[in-house]
Write a structure and sequence with these properties.
Helix content: under 10%
Largest sheet: 8 strands, antiparallel
Strand content: over 45%
Number of strands: 19
Radius of gyration: 17 Å
Number of helices: 0
Structural class: mainly beta
Length: 235
């Protein structure tokens, strides 16, 4: 998607692309795999937000990536990761994985637990191609306010990323209000993982996404059941 300074983009959960297999239930905010719509190829450098639920004992076998920042936010359960850089790790709820595919990485993602797992996988275009592949993984304790997950300078304990973008996660209780301040001139994207709320009178439900420019929205207020959401600052 090509965006301009006046763009406001709402992506209702029910209008996302949907992939359903016997072991995978996946909702795609943007064009992905066999799902293609030129109106939904991304938002700024944000190219993929997939909300995946993977059955126990199943997953994605070894497959390649290159020149992409790949971020996995674990919501429930566990995911076993193996890659051509030599990593063999377990991701659990609350953890975030960041992988710079760079010149090329081959990896697998399999749920070796005994329960389904849920995760959001996010792809962001890097600032530069052809860098050395890199891997990071960290557990974050998410509270009512914004917890920084990604920051190019690793501010406040955030993980690094090869792009001048930032990502936060918060789990506000019912009625609590969060600031949506992002850097002037940048674009923001809100993704509702769970729950509901409103952004300056624009209602959002689980799975909804909202793209906006700095200053278009000031606050997010959680609904009666609280909320779990991501906020991107994109450039």
């Amino acid at each position: 998607m090509t965006t301009t300074a006046s763009d406001l983009v709402f992506r209702p959960a029910a209008e996302r692309f949907h992939s359903q297999l016997d072991w995978l239930d996946s909702w795609h905010s943007f064009s992905f795999s066999s799902h293609y719509d030129p109106a939904w190829i991304g938002y700024g450098p944000l190219r993929v937000i997939n909300d995946d639920t993977i059955a126990a004992g199943r997953g994605f076998g070894m497959h390649p990536h290159r020149d992409m920042e790949i971020v996995t936010v674990m919501v429930e359960g566990q995911l076993n990761h193996r890659d051509s850089m030599g990593h063999a790790e377990v991701l659990r709820a609350g953890e975030v994985q960041r992988m710079s595919a760079g010149t090329g990485v081959v990896h697998s993602e399999v749920n070796e637990g005994d329960q389904p797992c849920r995760l959001l996988q996010i792809w962001i275009e890097p600032s530069s191609a052809g860098i050395a592949p890199a891997y990071g993984q960290k557990l974050f304790v998410i509270g009512n306010g914004w917890t920084p997950l990604l920051d190019p300078g690793q501010a406040k304990g955030a993980m690094a990323i090869n792009r001048p973008v930032r990502l936060w996660r918060a789990q506000p209780d019912a009625g609590e209000t969060l600031s949506l301040a992002i850097e002037s001139g940048n674009q923001g994207w809100i993704q509702l993982i769970d729950g509901a709320g409103t952004t300056d009178h624009h209602a959002l439900q689980q799975g909804d996404g909202l793209g906006f420019n700095a200053g278009q929205f000031q606050t997010f207020t959680a609904g009666t059941g609280g909320a779990d959401l991501l906020l991107f600052d994109l450039r």
